[in-house]
Amino acid sequence: MGVVVPMEKGRPQAEADLNDLVALVADGMARVNTTILSRTGSEVTMIPEVASHLIASGGKRLRPILTLACADLCGYQGGEGAVKLAASVEFMHTATLLHDDVVDESDMRRGQVAARIKWGNEASVLAGDFLLGQAFRMMVEVGSLRALDILSAAATVIAEGEVMQLTAAKNTETTEDEYLAVIRAKTAELFAAACEVGPVLAERPRPEQAACRSYGMNLGIAFQLIDDALDYGGSSAELGKNVGDDFREGKITLPIVLAFRRGSEDERAFWRRTLQEGAIEDGDLETARTILRRHRALEDTVERARHYGAMARDALALFPQSPTKAALLQAIDFCIARAH
Amino acid sequence: MGVVVPMEKGRPQAEADLNDLVALVADGMARVNTTILSRTGSEVTMIPEVASHLIASGGKRLRPILTLACADLCGYQGGEGAVKLAASVEFMHTATLLHDDVVDESDMRRGQVAARIKWGNEASVLAGDFLLGQAFRMMVEVGSLRALDILSAAATVIAEGEVMQLTAAKNTETTEDEYLAVIRAKTAELFAAACEVGPVLAERPRPEQAACRSYGMNLGIAFQLIDDALDYGGSSAELGKNVGDDFREGKITLPIVLAFRRGSEDERAFWRRTLQEGAIEDGDLETARTILRRHRALEDTVERARHYGAMARDALALFPQSPTKAALLQAIDFCIARAH
């Protein structure tokens, strides 16, 4: 089942892909990738392997792309600063994935076996710490205290988000507000910081920093909500993971929050058994999808994502038309159109 | 110009008024009103007059109604506790209005001359403080530490919201996120607290408290956004103030945030002149409305409000069907349908 997303009124989404954005920052991203490779090196055995395992496994590198694009949007003239901050952002992201897998006891990540399975939990935690350390060293090299402030604050907020999620974990009675607070911290904060350091590097005034931050924050929320919907309705190809992973891991995401609240007592008992107690039986994923469909939980998750997408779009409205701005707006459509 | 709000898909809004809600809590509200009158008394000259001036001037008393209704929704059996907390909530609201008028240098409130014009700024500030004090005394009499915690935290957040607004005031480059943070604190927090103390009094478990809090918070945001839209498009009758008041006071509300960002340089110069510099000339309000229309700023403000309304609706989905639940859901429709 795909999630049926009605076309947004009057706004053709024909070209909702990331190609323009990727092409615009291709030179910078080549340098980011070189930097990433050179900074995963260490004399200490195992660290380079563990770090490279996940880094080499692909992923869209959306966050560093956003850093470069937002710097470009604000007229930043291609020094090494944006490249190093973009690489820092990707290291921060990779570090949280390594730590996440340990916390969630995940076996798979990006279609391959998780680092913690191959090298153990300790190595995964420490390789994550190593990458975080490298990220901070690169930020210091760039020498912008404001950018350091933004990215180190994000690191703290992300950690807080993880802890919030631990507390909320497996609680089917989580409210939508509580869930939003978690994904704001866990996911959207890094998107926001990745975007905000662009105008900071370009030494642009506060309204442009606030605009990029707001764009990133709301794009990040929309991105996560669509991921949540895809986990129950997409194909593995567009998802980078398997349909039903969230369900099997007992993750409380927005579709579940909505369906649980809207459901009958029998349905709530089903969610408690499968997600809270982890007693999943054959056919339960199909039942889950049927219940989600019954309550329009996936459609309404996409509808909520669309709201945040609209906010991200308006955040950039301050900037004059440019190819970079157009590509950043297209990235919003891309995020939401994934749910087609 | 009315704001044209398309009917929400499949959800008839024929009976979008507050009558059911008002009728359900009519007995309780009669006692709240008696309590309010008895607690505005003071030996000190002027305090009763200043306090009563605003209290007697009407207003929907939506916040204490929500306290009573949420207590009722959670099976609270009509003691004096809910009545006293409801009166406290209304006193907190009245105190912030008295203080607001001083901060904003407003001349009118609820269609009559503001207390500060009649008795001076000092008396308005101090009468507000008196009401806040009385609110806390009533809360203490109720004896629920949890309710005291919720309402006193709200008082702090509201004050923070006022200060945030001072900082953001007259800044046409305010982002939507920044504006939302202000109205969350200034307006929605008291709605949230008013609702949350209901299940607290009824000694219901945390999920019901969180649900009522979330309902109140999102209803409060939707309520404020519709108020913002009505200020440029409604009739004075439904608004309780005159169309264009926000404009004349240079208030940056969501319609302005959207139109400013979406507008041309000429239009931005217009908003800076009128709102930031306060140089308003004849015909400017009409121009403002034309620009807002050009960018669909009012329609999209209502669209945003609808998103928060949907969140408020889902927050209550946990509760079984009851007349009180139905009336609380109707209150959401009422809030949004005001923009018709």
Automatic annotation (TrEMBL), chains A, B:
Q: Where is the signal peptide?
A: none
User: Which PROSITE patterns did the record assign?
Assistant: POLYPRENYL_SYNTHASE_1
**Transmembrane regions:** none
First-level EC class: transferase
Q: From the Swiss-Prot or TrEMBL record, what is one GO molecular function term?
A: metal ion binding
Tell me which Pfam families the record gives: polyprenyl_synt
What are its GO biological-process terms? isoprenoid biosynthetic process
Tell me the cofactors it needs. Mg(2+)
* Keywords annotated in UniProt: Magnesium, Metal-binding, Transferase
**Known EC number(s)?**
2.5.1.90
Name the protein family: Belongs to the FPP/GGPP synthase family.
Supply the name of the protein.
Octaprenyl diphosphate synthase
